[in-house]
Amino acid sequence: MALIKTKHNRRSFLKVSAAGGAGLLLQFSWFSGLAQSDAQPEDIAFDLNAYIRINGNGTVTIFSPNPEIGQNVKTSMPLIVAEELDVAWDQVTVEQAPLDTKKFSRQIAGGSQSIRAGWDGLRMAGATARYLFLNAAAKLWNIPAEDLVTEEGMVKHLPTNKTIAYKELIDEASKIEIPEEVPLKAPKDFKLIGTAVKNVDGVKIATGKPLFGLDYMEEGAAIAMLIHAPAFGMKLKSFDATEAKAMPGIKDVFTVDTSLQNPSWADVNAFNELIVVVGESTWQVMQAKKAVQAEWETEATAESTATHLEQFASVFSKGKGEVARQDGDPDAAFANADTVIERTYFGSFLAHNTLEPMNFFADVKADSARLIGPIQTPEALRGSAAAMLNIPGDNIHVDMTRMGGGFGRRLYGNFGLEAAAISQKIGAPVKLIYTREDDMTQGTYRPSYTLKYKAALDANKNLTAFEVQGSGIPSSPVFADRYPAGTLANYRAENFGIDTNISTGAWRAPRSNFTAGAEQSFIDEVAEAAGKDPIDFRLELFDNAIANPVGERNDYDAERYAGVLKLVREKSNWGTEIDGVYRGVSAYYCHNSYVAQVIDLVMDDRGNPVVQKVWCAVDCGIVVNKEGALNQIEGGIVDGLGHAMYSQLTFKDGAPEQQNFDRYRLIRNNEAPLEIEVFFAENEIAPTGLGEPGLPPVAGALASALYKATSKRYYRQPYMILEQETAILG
Amino acid sequence: MPQYSLMINEQEHQVDVAANTPVLWVLRDHLKMVGTKYGCGIGQCGACTIHLNGNAVRSCSLPVSAIANASMKITTIEGLSETGDHPVQKAWVEVDVPQCGYCQAGQIMSAAALLNRNATPSEDEIKNAMSGNLCRCGTYTRINKAVALAATKK
């Protein structure tokens, strides 16, 4: 039987206390006499009291620790607790926990890590409570615990069919010492994990209930909006708000400065000095914004896409980059090659464009604050707010609302800081709202990238060397230790950076979101030059890495990687040709999960590509919630296709040329695949995340399918825009 | 500021707002009905979709003065059904459409309007009718499945 450490020392017990309403809150108490927070070592990830409330009516409330951005953790994290607790899912209600670093660790929505990092702790919380209830019944009935089982929130004595509900056992359970280890269920005994469970907020979403940050408002709070410099590289010189202040509903116009002395990684923000318009209603403030007369001055280069492209065109010729990895002697291998293939790939800046624009509620008092809104990194926001407001972090309460999308944008909490700064300045609660234009022009954009790949084939068409040179504004997207590193003797990865004053950051599947498409398109082209089937070609390389991996740092498991390719090959009937259907394949590993995809593409009667079907194989270990997992992969595919095909953010004189959805093109319903079919590898490996891994490979499969359809290779994203323009990179 | 009398979800509401105030902000700020979402403000994303006499319209681009008339009946996501049991809402839950969920009220209003005028839409008709509503999470295949399911329940 698998055991898990409870991370509690001896002599800790369940503490029962009345919770709000008729509920009972399960808590630990400590005999050591230390305050709870002092007694808990820093590494306690999960604390029973943080997760589970047994309600008076027998239902169970499970608190979801991490922010919900649409990745479905508000359903899947509590599902894991419920599994080990052994309660029926329809007895469970879920509540979003607030930021509480004493009870929870890593309350972050990012990196597809919530499930992976949370798995053990969530199971432990449920299993510990279950253990206590089971042993409480044993004590109460004077029956050996071995003769008892749990099921649907009850302990049952099998020989007699006698049952008792958990809620009746709380007193008794509080007298049982929490053991250092508790048993976990074997995966074969899972009743909830692996089933298809619907979104816990599904009904509320379908009926328009106020769930999102933008929906959160308090009586008497003011509405605020910002004016930032119109271009990166500019700052405020002066402003005149006489007219704006005289407009109906406008309370004040002033500036705030959100600069921090020691900004954290989550404080990316190009515009710290901002004009603020505060008023009674959103529309009034929007109108007054337009009436503010501001003068701006240039303090740094006004960058443009045209100059970015020139920088990219010359970057690789400017000497050596930073060598991130070298195996063997790639230079000799290239010199001795029969064929050398070299291709350059380009990707535009992208905005996140969460459909819910940035916003935050703040109520800052003299020595405390409440910050409520959509944030992927509540702990970082609290830390930055504490520094900026000069209020102790312990006095700052942060609540996470459901988020209308994250995609990485809400890792960077400048909007939360701005709301806090405004509230402090006016001494009253405030709701900060970005317009779409504010949102698109004050971004932490996906950097623009260029990748140059080079492959050597010998006379027998074997791959003998592989080189990738990456550049980005500001940094390269190369993962030096990923495929095909490890599969061949001669390999080199090099990075080149290009300085910028445009603010950039993580965008769903950072770096992978571009690298996968470029790398997999290139592999397709190399396989073709080698005269091999693109799946066979990839599998041969994986065979090398399975038998004789090169290097110590390869960050993937070659068998699992090959496994998803084999699975998608089988399920898609790869190799069968259908007239008028063009196929491309791709496989990529990122965020600890493996994904392979086959695209079936047809051309419509106007010559436009239509993705008829995407076949997708995924290895994320144990699938926690089948429904949520499918939805994440489907969404990742649509998101990846859309951005590869249609989306770009370009700059002129430091300003984004796309400021709303009239010019920034996002994929629409009639451009999405007609069908997506997803297959999960079946194994009992601890689960990994799915918010990001479905997205990156699709651009590669798409480029290869487009090649089959048009006999043209696609090197520049977005394919449907840049490939139709003049070649820009020479 | 002018006073307007509005018929929303079969109830009369009085508001004092500027004539050019979009219905979206009247709903959200003045009537505290926040199910209708702000996404772009220029009628491009569909998050603010409501019904005007049963037809889907973008409330971000509809000035309040244009609907201050007894013949103009507004329906929002809050009023689409009394208990959330409109066939489209039930289909949305059944198909488990949402990821973040932010666009879905607008999607549901567009779908309900489609089924009002075409009870048995084809796959193409569904895709075309729903293409004015952006879903940033990419739930389009589920949206289409849910609309088709709702059509069988109408």
From TrEMBL, chain A:
Residues 207-300 form the Aldehyde oxidase/xanthine dehydrogenase a/b hammerhead domain. One of its GO terms (molecular function) is oxidoreductase activity. SUPFAM superfamilies: Molybdenum cofactor-binding domain (SSF56003). InterPro entries: Ald_Oxase/Xan_DH_a/b, AldOxase/xan_DH_MoCoBD1, AldOxase/xan_DH_MoCoBD2, AldOxase/xan_DH_Mopterin-bd_sf, N-heterocyclic_Hydroxylase, OxRdtase_Mopterin-bd_su_IorB, TAT_signal. Gene3D superfamilies: Aldehyde oxidase/xanthine dehydrogenase, a/b hammerhead (3.90.1170.50), Aldehyde oxidase/xanthine dehydrogenase, molybdopterin binding domain (3.30.365.10). Pfam families: MoCoBD_1, MoCoBD_2. Signal peptide: none annotated. It comes from the Bacteria. This is Isoquinoline 1-oxidoreductase beta subunit. It comes from Leeuwenhoekiella palythoae.
TrEMBL record, chain B:
InterPro entries: 2Fe-2S-bd, 2Fe-2S-bd_dom_sf, 2Fe-2S_ferredoxin-like_sf, 2Fe-2S_ferredoxin-type, 2Fe2S_fd_BS, Beta-grasp_dom_sf, Diverse_Oxidoreductases. One of its GO terms (molecular function) is 2 iron, 2 sulfur cluster binding. Residues 2-80 form the 2Fe-2S ferredoxin-type domain. Keywords: 2Fe-2S, Iron, Iron-sulfur, Metal-binding, Oxidoreductase. It comes from the Bacteria. Transmembrane segments: none annotated. This is Isoquinoline 1-oxidoreductase alpha subunit. It comes from Leeuwenhoekiella palythoae.
